[in-house]
Amino acid sequence: MLCEECRQRQATVHMTKIINNMRSEIHLCEQCASNHEEFASITPFSMNDLIASFMDMGAGHQAFLRSATVKCPACGMDYARFKQSGMLGCRECYQHFSNELLPVLRKIQSRTEHSGKVPKRSGSSLLLKKQIKELRQELKIAVETEAFERAAEIRDRLKALEASYREQGRDIK
Amino acid sequence: MSWIEEKGPDRDVVLSSRIRLARNIAGYPFPTMMKDSDAREILDTVKRCFSVSTPFSGRRYSVTLIKDLPEVDRQVLVEKHLASIDLMQHSDVAALIMDDRQRVTIMVNEEDHIRMQCILPGFQLDKAWEMLDRVDDTIEAEVEYSFDDRLGYLTACPTNVGTGLRASVMMHLPALTVSKQIGAVLQTISKIGLTARGLYGEGSEALGNIYQISNQITLGPSEQDIINNLTVACQRIFEKERMAQQAMLKVSGKQFEDVLWRALGTLTHARVMDIKEFMALISQLRLGVGLSIIPGLTAENVNELMILGQSGVLGKRAGRELDDADLNAYRAETIRSRLNEMLQA
Hints:
heterodimer; A: mainly alpha; two-stranded antiparallel ribbon; 51% helix; B: alpha+beta; Creatine Kinase, Chain A, domain 2
């Protein structure tokens, strides 16, 4: 089959469009296809559009009706506006819209739990947990490379950290 | 001096490496729902961290209110990748804090209260992260961030939550584009949580064969994991691009060289040039310089020309409103004279 546009090269890119039950086909060569928006490899839509579509996909009709009228009590952001803009209004929105948000996060993010940097002043137990995890990794490397003096040092620091973690009443796996 | 004129690693394919962190201050709604008085307090708080009298990490920082900035200057900041279009759209309450080397910029009251970025020339994501991590620590010493034990740093848009980190590498991939391998490359990277944009962000086309590759995922992996993932993917892309360039040189030889030399010819002699043609010629010139086919010019020269030819930068230089025809003539004239100066130096 020849390309419908240049009528010179072989058509290697094929697209079938169905809009309102009307079916149309396009057959192009790669060169001509690269001039068509539909075949562009760079995403032409914004992330916000994507969030909106994910939110529609997840919720059933009833859930949608419920959410449509719900407002965040802290900042007044409503679901319709959130859906349209893809933006939340405040930190409480994360709690308040969590039913709608979690399925979206699962689709656009890899996991729903943070494992990166933790602000020091938050006094979060996450900070300790993170340090413990990093030290365990270091210890493993020290043992593997037979740096035993260093390993002993790390082990002492680990013990101290694990003790203060337990003092906060938490289990260490 | 800025990333545009400075030398960086892998500069034959990489223009810049950029890390951006999104942060919000606890106790205030996000910019979508905040009042003007909130915005003023937030700006005052952030400004205190960058007080001009006490140099921060050895550099001096300047604070600019966007509403005090003429339209043309706003466009120049966006074209130099020092601020976002979004910041300009929040012009009534937004501000930009910038260091004197234009490496670290902090956007205040954009989509989030704080958007800080570090942009460095060439391929050096690790160094950019190291610098920005320190900036983040310094701000954090003064303010309490909106942070959740499970979700990490909370951001207005859930696409940034977690680390709030976007790492982005701006690269020139002419051979992969011309040989039509780029589609497959971009498809592959999307499978490992990376995404590609054009020269000026989301939805913009790949003018001048320039692509920005960045992480899509911000929640789950740690900052270092995100950066490592992007680093490894980029290295593979550079390898492929260099191979494709060598293949073109080998197969098309003289004809290929001819195309690159003609680009130099047009840039030094044309009288009218629109942005699309200009960016295509700059791409060819960059390729010629990178492959040492065109002597007497450096990758930094090409960066400078590329920014010089952008509409806002030209408008600022001309000091008057330019219509399309004026602009295209002024672009050709400006590039011609600067390029000739570079070649004679």
